[in-house]
UniProtKB/TrEMBL annotation:
Subcellular location: Cell membrane
InterPro entries, per the entry: MetI-like (IPR000515), MetI-like_sf (IPR035906)
Matching PANTHER family: ABC TRANSPORTER PERMEASE PROTEIN MG189-RELATED-RELATED, POLYGALACTURONAN_RHAMNOGALACTURONAN TRANSPORT SYSTEM PERMEASE PROTEIN YTCP
Protein name: Carbohydrate ABC transporter membrane protein 2 (CUT1 family)
CDD domains: TM_PBP2 (cd06261)
Spans traversing the lipid bilayer: 12-32, 44-66, 78-98, 110-131, 184-206
Coiled coil: none
Amino acid sequence: MKIKVSKSRQIFLITNFLIMFMVVFVTLYPFVYLIAQSFSSDKAVAAGLVSFYPIEFTITTYKYVLSKVEFYRYYANTIFYGIMGTLISVAGTAILAYPLSKSRLRLNKFFIPFCIFTMYFSGGMIPNYILVAKWLNLRDSMWSILLPGAISTFNLLLMKSFFSGLPEELEEAAAIDGMGVYSIFAKIIIPLSKPIIATMCLFYLVGLWNEWFAPFIYLDSKDKWPVALWVRQLVEGANNVEMGSGAEESQITTTIKSATMVLTSLPIICVYPFVQKYFVQGMTMGAVKG
């Protein structure tokens, strides 16, 4: 049986399709252009001939970037910051969010507004620098990247909302069986919180992977730089890449930025599909109850 669709419904579907198509196009085109530019020659990019596909296809830029020893060092630093920072941040957020989710704790009336206050107001860049570099003595230390911004207030509130939505009967039954608070948290709450934990891991990992400002102001040693800071220096022209005068290397001057950004973005793009189902579930369940 063929279902008749009204004219107003058809107009809505067509309009909805056009809007979604434009959103997808605006979202994907910059990355598609970046990939096309990275595989094109410098002359084609300079002439503005590159749009959706490479012009004068070449992989010289990628050969040049991948031949640089410092690229692998910066990449290794980024992986270290991403993994260690995510572990520290997720653990700290979960440990703080769990007691905040218990309305029976009286001090939460103070701590929750206090946490929310920090989301809207901060001490500023100079006080933060004095705190991290002078008082904590973390200047030129990898911990200056991992510890100061370890817990995000937004992520904390999201995880708190998720914990609040879990049935309290499970904790009460476990307590009757003799389990303590720490055992309940580790053996019951954490296994039930895989969606929100996966969401937090994605949020923190993306933030740490793209972080360049904190390393820029706290790290003096270039061997501790993340790859995002190196890319930033390339884009801004602050880091003059030493290159020969050969024809092969002369093509790299413009496209090296695009190739480096593509190589930097690939790991996050590859990770996202595996955590997408947890991401959607964690976001929806974490926003149900506040």
